[in-house]
């Protein structure tokens, strides 16, 4: 089993803390917490080093197992790495494919419960809505953000056509596009996985909106390899963790043709050009654009978080380019860390409107830092 966990989720769980979005009391200390979590809480290990431990654990199992057996089997590995059972339990709960059974493990193996989604608010669907949950699908969430930013009317039209109108019809249907131009309809119920009172997977910054979670659920249904069950399970969701790239995910959601460049190539080095193929003369992306970081961030240089706040092998939506050359990004985690050297101060003025920086996952990174730490950029041509 090849496995690479979401670094943000892993860091949260290893530190034994949960961040509640919108809690003002924690907002001031969020940056310090993330830096601590990135270094694996006092162990001074990078998240990448922690990955290796949990990948060893995941590779022990060829099929889902009860939590008790997983914990006992993995004990020599995590103890040798210096982790306690208390640290490993919350990590295993989220990062191993666990199946419950009629045993004492039920309280641990519970992946959540299905709850009816609320009203889908299409008119207010916007780029700040999508927030990544306990899945490694930053590629999909960044694609949603990029669509809501660059082509909001097309996204709104798709959401309207999805037909989710409770209580009359509690189903949601989305047409997925393949690279040959074909379509496949994926229909799901309006029931979403919750845990501890909140959505377990994709969610919206606004609690009244359900569209990111419903689009993600339809994506899971479309990616499902087999089976005819009416409802998805936590194991079904696990199939999308490594199943795509931002460009392909975006193309599957909206159609068109996925494009991309390596940022260290000649074409990639000049990808941002006012009035060019990606942006207006004012620097606003005219197409859904996503970029993702290099895999080895934090391996050779453990101070990478202090300098950039960037996660390794993580996709971000690209919103635009400032006159100063700073690249404006949104992190699917939906949280922005404190402004660092190389970050721009906000707001970003666009004609009569503006975009706040260093809030809700939006920040502006210097061009030098962007090209030093990002590997690929992708977009979708919708013409």
Instruction: State the oligomer.
Output: single chain
- pLDDT under 50 segments (min length 5)? 1-5, 12-27, 98-110
The N- and C-terminal alpha carbons lie at a distance of 39 Å
Category by helix and strand content? alpha+beta
Can you give the helix content as a percent range? 25-40%
**SSE order, one letter for each helix or strand:** HHHHHHHEEHHEEEEEHHHEHEHEEEEEHE
Share of residues in strands = 15-25%
Shape by Cα distribution: globular
What is the alpha-carbon Rg in Å? 20 Å
Word description of this protein:
The two termini are 39 Å apart. Strand 3 and strand 4 form a beta hairpin. Helix 1 (7-15) packs across helix 3 (30-38) and helix 1 runs antiparallel to helix 6. The strands form five sheets. A six-stranded antiparallel beta sheet has the order 8-15-9-10-11-14. A three-stranded antiparallel beta sheet has the order 1-5-6. The chain has three domains: 7-105, no CATH class; 115-247, no CATH class; 257-381, Cathepsin B, Chain A (Alpha-Beta Complex), CATH 3.90.70. The longest helix has 14 residues, at 67-80. Residues 1-5, 12-27 and 98-110 have low confidence and may be disordered. It is 33% helix and 19% strand. It has 15 helices and 15 strands. It is an alpha+beta fold and 383 residues long.
């Amino acid at each position: 089993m090849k496995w690479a966990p979401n670094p943000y989720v892993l860091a949260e769980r290893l530190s034994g803390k949960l961040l509640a979005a919108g809690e003002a009391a924690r907002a001031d200390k969020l940056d310090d917490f993330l830096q601590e979590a990135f270094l694996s809480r006092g162990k001074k290990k990078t998240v990448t080093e922690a990955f290796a431990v949990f990948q060893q654990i995941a590779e022990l199992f060829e099929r889902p197992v009860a939590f008790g057996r997983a914990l006992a089997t993995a004990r020599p590995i995590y103890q040798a790495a210096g982790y306690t059972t208390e640290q490993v339990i919350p990590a295993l709960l989220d990062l191993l494919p666990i199946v419950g059974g009629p045993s004492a493990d039920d309280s641990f193996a519970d992946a959540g419960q299905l709850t009816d989604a609320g009203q889908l608010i299409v008119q207010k669907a916007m780029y700040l809505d999508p927030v990544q949950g306990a899945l490694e699908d930053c590629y999909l969430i960044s694609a949603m953000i990029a669509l809501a930013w660059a082509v909001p009317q097309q996204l709104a039209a798709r959401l309207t056509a999805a037909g989710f109108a409770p209580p009359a019809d509690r189903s949601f249907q989305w047409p997925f596009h393949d690279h040959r131009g074909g379509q496949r309809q994926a229909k799901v119920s309006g029931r979403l996985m919750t845990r501890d009172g909140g959505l377990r997977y994709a969610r919206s910054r606004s609690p009244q909106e359900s569209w990111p979670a419903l689009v993600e659920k339809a994506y899971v249904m479309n990616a499902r390899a087999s089976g005819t069950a009416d409802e998805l399970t936590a194991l079904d969701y696990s199939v999308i963790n490594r199943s795509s790239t931002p460009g392909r995910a975006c193309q599957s959601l909206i159609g068109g043709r996925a494009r991309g460049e390596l940022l260290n190539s000649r074409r990639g080095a000049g990808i941002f050009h006012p009035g060019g193929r990606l942006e207006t003369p004012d620097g606003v992306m005219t197409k859904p654009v996503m970029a993702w970081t290099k895999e080895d961030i934090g391996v050779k240089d453990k101070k990478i978080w202090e300098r950039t706040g960037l996660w390794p092998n993580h996709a971000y939506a690209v919103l635009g380019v400032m006159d100063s050359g700073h690249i404006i990004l949104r992190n699917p985690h939906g949280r922005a860390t404190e402004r660092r050297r190389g970050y721009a101060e906000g707001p970003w003025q666009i004609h009569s409107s503006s975009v706040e920086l260093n809030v809700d996952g939006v920040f502006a990174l210097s061009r030098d830092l962007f090209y030093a730490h990002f590997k690929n950029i992708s977009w979708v041509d919708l013409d």
